[in-house]
Amino acid sequence: MDNDTRQIMATALGLSEYDLEEMMAEFSQLSTNGGSSVGVSSNETQSSGGLGAEEQTDIDGNGRQNEGGRPGPASPPSTSSYRTSLLHSLAQSRAALQRGVQGAVGLAILDPFNTYAGYVPHYSSTPLSKLCRIQLSEMQTRKVHKGHYLLCRLAAPPTRLVATQACIEDPTGDVCSLSIYNYPGTRLAPANVLDTIFPMGAILAIREPYLGIGLYNSDPFIHVNSPSDIVFIKPSDSILDGICWKLPIHISTPVPQTMCGWKDVGDGHFRLAQYFAAVIAYSNGLDLDPNAYVLQLNRAVAYLRLEYFPAALSDAEAVLPVKQLSNEMRAKALFRAAQAEYGLGRYQAAAVRLEESHLLNSRAPEPIAWLTRCEERLQEVEGKYDWVRMFEDAMTPGRRLDVAEYVGPIRVQPMPTRGGGRGVVTTRAVKAGELLLVAKPFVACFPEELSGSGDTMPTHLGQNSCRADAVSQLFVKLAANQELAPVVLDLYAGPKYPAPPSEYPPPAPTGIKPRDPRVFEIDLDIQQIEHICADALFIPETLNILEPLGTTVSRDPMKSASALYSLPSLFNHSCLANGSWSNFKDIMVIRAEKDIYEGEEITIPYADGPTLLSKAAKFKKYAFSCDCALCEADRRDGVALCRRREELLSSIPIPLEPRRIALRRARAILSDMEATYSASRGPVRSALARAHNELAGVYALEAQTNPSFSISSITENMAAIEALGIIILDKSTSGPLDREEGAVADLPVATTLTSVVDYQSCMLFSLALVSVFNTLGDVARAKRWFKVGLWLDDVSIGGGRELFNIRYKKMLEFLDISDLSRSVAL
Ligand SMILES: C[S@@+](CC[C@H](N)C(=O)[O-])C[C@H]1O[C@@H](n2cnc3c(N)ncnc32)[C@H](O)[C@@H]1O
């Protein structure tokens, strides 16, 4: 080993070069003395009686083949050079991490990408007490060691590439690389955070470990996918009875020995928003001094940030009875308790705590501000929202919305014909536009919230960073807040998993006690979680201000936001849905888009598209085919006509785009598009609507030189609106109005919205009509069609006139109808 390498290793491992030399000499001596007997063949393993014949198969718990190969020979090698090279590689990687270099070195041994392809993630569901110990030398590559656990010790400080990387040794002194995926609190974590979560010398039991082998080299490594497979073993645990570690351990990373030391570590992690590690550090401090109430209050805040509200409440409440507490501290504890109640959605209880806190310390401003927040939330649980404030908050970069959830007249009901067996129905008759649900996400990630590193996790969900981050957050949340697990784990995970229970919500957990979040009380099936995410992750597209010339927002699917919701994930899909969903940043709002009778199923559109073909591509991940009237009609029209429709559509500029096509071409497209729909199908023909609207736009341009084209433009836009399912009652384009201006009932359209699709386009086509009527000086008709637009927007988005004015301001200016809009009241 050259001097540079020695220095890098020594620094990264926190050893002096002398210690390093000594350590390596010790390993080398042990090895040459035959200090360990690893490297036995699979036959030897079998004959040793360590593993039964049945356990030799290369099948994980779900009966799937891993990495496509037979179990390999026993690994890892036991030579001292192997140990040295492993520690060297890890040390280089750790040094790079400390320098802030992502995934730069150490790939020869520690490349997790190397090993991921083709690997079926497994998890253990067998309690540690029912497993038998296995040694590294008895393990075989490409094999899940069912029925066994590996007792090991972290032999070097951990590092991180994509997974957390560590070097473990078993009691015999054999070493192996360990790759831990999905462990809470480790994503993008710096070295000192990893040291808190996986301190060197910590003893672990890895349940039913999988020994993988690199694709580019033959180095073995233990691959842990599910955090619950790792059990931290306390020194007093009886599992260690009779265990002797062959090698001495050199702890190179300093570990605090006092409560205050751990407080400092916890505070440091907290300042860097590493709340998971902060909780562990505070817990370590509390283990040393259970009466250290300052640590308990600090841990309560860390729990609050992790949104582990029951634990935060428990910590805050535990401090309240302390006798020597000053009023200021007691007020603080009450404030923390109030914040936890608030997080749990118990706003009344939060308000009581806040008042108590204020009485004890009237100088602290926060409780008063939070009291106002409680009052607002108490309005919201009744369904009364300040939509404009929500919209503005949603538009503010980096801000998440503070609102209460609302569950309207809906309930979950068994629906055996739907995948997952459940759906959502109304509990009473509901009118179009009624608010049905306002939901907060379980986890969410937006592109602007990602750190600049672009680090992505190679999950089975693809490389979308927001998705990867949302999944990673999910592990933190499930680890910290395991009582919430049923809310997530009872979501539909696809046909390969048993149908979830039909009761919703799952029974509320009781007897919650805060605990070290590294102690897993539930087994996390990583595959199930990824399947749930694949089925249920939404792409929350924040409501925006409408840009007249189209949006400049990137639609790169790899950069789209990602969020997981609970109750919204129980709505089934229909292309002709009677419910709509929209997002104020992370907050999802579901409304009735049509009148719905009592007990009728509420559906929402998961995705849209002009034909069955484009929808099929979007629905590939779901194992169902939509049986709505539109899809059935497309099936009857056949693939060739659907394909032709898609082709024609691609030759039309997208709505709001300034580009227009020639009049003759627009007419030809319309005529060809009409021919792609069989005469017998219903009125809803969304691709045809676009062709009509395009022709209307071309006519409107022509009308600038020849006003007689204006009426053609109006007629075409009316046809476009009809092709989206709206029934127009008054198609007149001039002359006296057949009805007086007035309430909604006097709209020129039927207010029954039985088979309307794409409200946003209906709305834009209505505004196009307003513009042409206004130019013609027909203010009465312009106002009536303006009301149609307002009404349609309110039905699908809500928020009333005030929100409409904000979102459509630029559009109204562009169409030169701002003055007209001010004179219209709905
Ligand atoms: C987000 S879940 C919806 C709730 C689900 N039904 C449950 O019981 O949890 C999506 C899954 O529901 C099923 N699903 C949704 N819409 C459906 C439809 N129109 N017809 C049949 N199954 C549907 C599909 O299996 C889909 O993968």
UniProtKB/TrEMBL annotation:
Domain (SET): residue spans on this chain: 399-607
Listed InterPro entries: Gramillin-biosynth_MTr (IPR053209), SET_dom (IPR001214), SET_dom_sf (IPR046341), TPR-like_helical_dom_sf (IPR011990)
Pfam family, one: SET
Entry superkingdom: Eukaryota
Region spans: Disordered: 29-83
Name of this chain's protein: SET domain-containing protein
